[in-house]
Amino acid sequence: MSVDAWQPVPQITSIDSAALERLVSVAAQAAEGNLTTDLDWIQPFAQMNHSAWSPAIAQLDTEKMISLIKLFTMVEKQAGWDLAEKSAVIPLFKALRKEVGIDRALVQWVKDQSDNKYLPFGPLL
Q1: What is the pLDDT at residue 8?
Q2: Binning pLDDT at 50, 70 and 90, where does residue 20 land?
């Protein structure tokens, strides 16, 4: 029997443009089925405080928001993270919804790809 050492996820409070571009690049690769990157560096962004996403979201167009929503949805399940209401999908989806309304196909895709009951809308209250 082996025991893994618990490593806390570093808490970050903002996302710089270089990290945002790297995430968008990984999201594009994931959309093509080429998600081969180490996922550990993504986890702090995946569970970053929702309000901290606001400046980063302002830099994104609709296509990039959708690709990041899909990336964080896939990565959460693939990596076995249980992010619940802390998932980055929630602030990204809220921003997308304000910009273009509810994309029913995207909602269904997220629900089909995830076991997280909070995705994509977040907690009810």
Answers
A1: 63
A2: very high
CB neighbourhood size of 3 (10 A): 5
At position 84, the amino acid (one-letter code) is: A
CA-closest candidate to residue 110, choices 93, 96, 97:
93
pLDDT surpasses 70 at 1: no
Backbone torsions φ then ψ of 79, nearest 5 degrees: -85, -10
What is the rounded CA–CA span in Å between residue 82 and residue 62?
26
Please give the full DSSP string across the chain, using - where no structure is assigned. Answer: ---PPP-PPPP-S---HHHHHHHHHHHHHHHTT---S-STTTHHHHTS-GGGGHHHHTT--HHHHHHHHHHHHHHHHHHT---GGG-THHHHHHHHHHHH---HHHHHHHHHH---TTTTT----
Domain locations along the chain: 52-120
The residue type at 8? P
Is the entire prediction scored with pTM above 0.70? yes
